[in-house]
Amino acid sequence: MTDSHKESLESLVAKARTGDSQAFSTIVRQLMNQIAALTYRMTGERESALDLAQDTFVSAWENLRGYRGEASFTNWIYRIATNKTLNYLKAGARRETVGELPDEIIDTTAVDPEKRLARKELAGRVLQFMHNLPPQQRIIFELRFYKGMPFEEIARATDRALGTVKTGYREAVKKLRNTASKKGWQ
Amino acid sequence: MDCACAREILQLSFGSDDLPKELQDHLQDCQTCQAYRDELARLASGLGSDNDFVLSDADLERSVRKVDNAIKARRPVSATPFTWLRPLARVAAVLLIVGALYSSRTDFDWPGQNAEVSDTSGVKLVDGRDDTPEEEMDEGFVSILIDDYSSSGYFEAGEALLGDISEEELEYLAENFEVGELL
Predict the structure, then answer these.
(1) Are A27 and A75 in contact (CB under 8 A)?
(2) pTM over 0.80
(3) A179 CB near a chain B CB, below 8 Å?
């Protein structure tokens, strides 16, 4: 994210905190993709992922007063998305198998067929790997690897001890090696 | 640093190019750990990045619209221009309640509480602060009583009324008034 974009997000957040729903709508437009990516990789389900992403922003709007700026606004939103997704997974509403990635959730119109296929294969591989992880490890891996969140913030976001978070990430990496070895991934 | 420690750090650094100097020094001299580092790097690149996930325009627009509609249905979270009135309104409500309780518990002369009632001839029949001793019978009152209730049409009322009168009062009536069949 460029400095100007980051600054823009901060000023949008400041406006949204005063009740400016238009500013918040702009925030939603800017961050929806990142949040939907998280919820999709966590659930593997298109509709659920979109619902969870939308619910995340609605909760964020309702709790804007709770955002005190200790973490970045984006990380604060990730925390909300994480909690909602974990609750969803705990409720047991998840698919047993992860099939092909539906075309419509990922925009493939801008890429050529070869790249489109590669992107689909990659996404499918990711989902296969992620869904071999238990939910807590899955979210730790998502926040660390895909969102670049420091371990300390992941610990706060998941209400886990720092050591637990680090151990969870290492275990996920080991499982990735095993999965790749079994599946013959290059 | 030994190889076990180096592997742990490589796992924790998975997806990151930022390695601690101590680890870099170990990797310079250890081919086994170099191979492990290279393997993890390949796996990381095989997982892509967050930017590989791009929501379709249709889903993005639909999602933004749903969020807009949902938050419009809710109250704004920010301070309204009149939130400073809320504490004042609370104080005013408390004062009203206290005032109402206070006035209901104090002696208060409600209108009509001690009203005097008179008959059509102007004789005072009911005194709100009636302190007439029982042994004193108001002659005017008795006379009116008899006049009002001694006719044949009022025998029942008269009997009911006279039923409450003591024997002394009955004697008084008999001695001083022609009450006839009434008694």
Answers:
(1) no
(2) no
(3) no
